[in-house]
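User: Predict the complex.
Assistant: Input components as received:
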Amino acid sequence: GQQVQQSPASLVLQEGENAELQCNFSTSLNSMQWFYQRPGGSLVSLFYNPSGTKHSGRLTSTTVIKERRSSLHISSSQTTDSGTYLCARNNYAQGLTFGLGTRVSVFP
Amino acid sequence: VTLLEQNPRWRLVPRGQAVNLRCILKNSQYPWMSWYQQDLQKQLQWLFTLRSPGDKEVKSLPGADYLATRVTDTELRLQVANMSQGRTLYCTCSAGQGANTGQLYFGEGSKLTVL
């Protein structure tokens, strides 16, 4: 099964609305990361190893490592927030394992 | 600031033909270089992490065969062969590997389409 589960799979927002994205891990966790993938394809790191709560502009990440879960909150969404949000876990002996992502569409 | 330069950015690949991809590292603070593939269903999957010049690895996945080579401290290559389905290959860099990966930085990607 999927080691990294993200929900919802997709989300449609009206500009100004808030959103909460979830990421759950099926096995014990060392650290994780949140990424944003632009509609054109390139990926940008949003939060790295965000244990506890961290803020970056209108984004807030809340991660509870021992419960193997993380959430990403988008406040006052803007059309430029549209894209796919991916979470990933670090692994001991290989690269990151990614979820399938949450596709967010923000309409004016 | 761009940490990684990938080329080509797009390539149409005739069925049965191999293609060579190149990735150049612009910042020596992140010497662990890796390749990830993203399939048509948008699933991102780690392929290789190569640290030292001369390191080579091969892998066969559904839809493509891969040969990765760390050529120099700043150059990583990937040969893609027997590709039957399109995909995008991303080069990444980081300060460590495994549990010590740290923040992962992505290149712009090389999008491959099968003709």
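Chain A is about 0% helix and 55% strand.
Let me know if you want any component modeled separately.
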